[in-house]
Design goal:
Keywords: 4Fe-4S, Cobalamin, Cobalt, Cytoplasm, Iron, Iron-sulfur, Metal-binding, Oxidoreductase, Queuosine biosynthesis, tRNA processing. This is Epoxyqueuosine reductase. It catalyses: epoxyqueuosine(34) in tRNA + AH2 = queuosine(34) in tRNA + A + H2O. Pathway: tRNA modification; tRNA-queuosine biosynthesis. It is built from 13 helices and ten strands. It starts with a helix and ends with a helix. α1 runs antiparallel to α5. The longest helix is centred in the middle third of the chain and has 19 residues. The relative contact order is 0.18. The chain is globular. Helices cover about 35% and strands about 15% of the residues. β5 and β6 form a beta hairpin. It is an alpha+beta fold. The protein has two domains: about 150 residues, NADH Oxidase (3-Layer(aba) Sandwich); about 100 residues, no CATH class. Strands 1-2-7-4 form a four-stranded antiparallel β-sheet, sandwiched between helices. Strands 3-10 form a two-stranded parallel sheet.
C-alpha cells in the first residue's frame, strides 16, 4: 500500500473517531464547473445584502490560491439532526442552531485532526475551514464523493439526508482522492414545490435574497412587507426544503452533546417567545448561532410573524 493510501486511511479513521459522519478527499485545484455558476449567482444579486460573497472570487474557486502549496482538500460532515424538536404551533428555530454554535464545535475537532496529522504523518501545513472563509464547501464535498448537490442546493447523502455541517482541511499533502457519486434527486421537486418564497430556482441554485434564512438572519433592515404570511412561523433560519426531502427520512439523531438544545427552548410556545427577556435569551442561546441575530433581530422577526 502506498504512503498516500496509508495516510488517507489514517485521516479517515481519525475523523470517524472524532465523531465526523464521513470524510472524503479531493485534489486541490480550480473548480471549473463552479466558476460560471458563481458568476451568474453574483451577477443576478442572489446574495442580497451578503456583500462578502463578492470578495475573493478567485480564492473561492481555487484553494491553491487560498492556501498556497495546497494539494488536497479533506471534506468532513458532522451530523446535527436532533432527537427532539420544538413543540407544534410555535415560532421555529432552524435545527442547526439548537445547540452550541457549530463553528466552535467543528473548529475544535478540526484542530484535533490537524494535530493528529502532524503527529502521525509529520510536517504537514494547511488550514481548517468551517463556513468562515471563501471556500465552496458543498462543491468540494461533492467532488470528494460525500454526496451530491440536491435541487435545494444542499449536499445530499443517500443514507443520511442533508442535516449535517460541511467543513474542510486544505493541506499541502498528496493523498488518495475519492470519486464523486451520482445524483439521486431524479424527477422529485418536493423542495422546490414546498418553498413558500420561491427561493429555489433552476440548476440547483437558491436565490439567497429570497430565502427565509436570509430574511431572518442576514438581512439587517426591515423585512419587506411583500413577504408577509410566507414564513410559516420560522423566526430564525428555515428547514422547509430539508424537512420535505425524501432522503431525510433516513436522518438519524446526532451523538454530539454540544448540539443538544437548552431544554426550555423546545417547550416555548408563541406567547413565551413574544415575551422573551434578555435574561431568557441569554440563558437559552448562550453559545448558539442564534446570537448572530441578537435579541433585537429575533424580536423583529417575531413581530413580523405576528402581524
Amino acid at each position: 500500500m502506498s504512503s498516500k493510501s496509508v495516510y488517507s486511511n489514517l485521516i479517515k479513521a481519525e475523523a470517524k473517531r472524532l465523531g465526523f459522519l464521513s470524510c472524503g478527499i479531493s485534489k486541490a485545484g480550480f473548480l471549473e464547473e463552479e466558476a460560471p455558476r458563481l458568476e451568474h449567482y453574483l451577477k443576478n444579486n442572489m446574495n442580497g445584502e451578503m456583500a462578502y460573497m463578492e470578495n475573493h472570487f478567485d480564492k473561492r474557486l481555487d484553494p491553491t490560491i487560498l492556501v498556497p502549496g495546497s494539494k488536497s482538500v479533506i471534506s468532513l460532515l458532522l451530523n446535527y439532526f436532533p432527537s427532539e424538536t420544538q413543540i407544534d404551533n410555535t415560532y421555529k428555530v432552524s435545527k442547526y442552531a439548537y445547540g452550541t454554535d457549530y463553528h466552535f464545535v467543528i473548529k475544535d475537532k478540526l484542530k484535533q485532526l490537524m494535530y493528529f496529522i502532524s503527529e502521525e504523518i509529520g510536517d504537514v501545513s494547511g488550514r481548517a475551514f468551517v463556513d468562515s472563509a471563501p471556500v465552496l464547501d458543498k462543491a468540494w464535498a461533492a467532488k470528494s464523493g460525500l454526496g451530491w448537490v440536491g435541487k435545494h442546493s444542499l449536499l445530499l447523502t443517500k443514507n443520511t439526508g442533508s442535516f449535517y455541517f460541511v467543513a474542510e482541511l486544505i493541506l499541502d499533502l498528496d493523498l488518495d482522492y475519492d470519486a464523486p457519486v451520482t445524483d439521486h434527486c431524479g424527477t422529485c421537486t418536493a423542495c422546490i414545490d414546498a418553498c413558500p418564497t420561491d427561493a429555489i430556482v433552476a440548476d440547483r441554485v437558491v436565490d439567497g435574497s429570497k430565502c427565509i434564512s436570509y430574511f431572518t438572519i442576514e438581512l439587517k433592515n426591515e423585512i419587506p412587507n411583500s413577504e408577509k404570511g410566507k414564513f410559516e412561523d420560522w423566526m430564525f433560519g428555515c428547514d422547509i426544503c430539508q424537512d420535505v426531502c425524501p432522503w431525510n427520512r433516513f436522518s438519524k439523531p446526532h451523538n454530539e452533546p454540544l448540539f443538544n438544545p437548552h431544554p426550555e427552548m423546545l417547550d416555548m410556545n408563541k406567547k413565551d417567545w413574544e415575551e422573551i427577556t434578555a435574561e431568557v435569551f441569554q440563558k437559552i442561546f448562550q453559545k448558539s448561532a442564534v446570537k448572530r441575530t441578537k435579541l433585537s433581530g429575533l424580536e423583529r422577526n417575531i413581530q413580523f410573524l405576528k402581524k
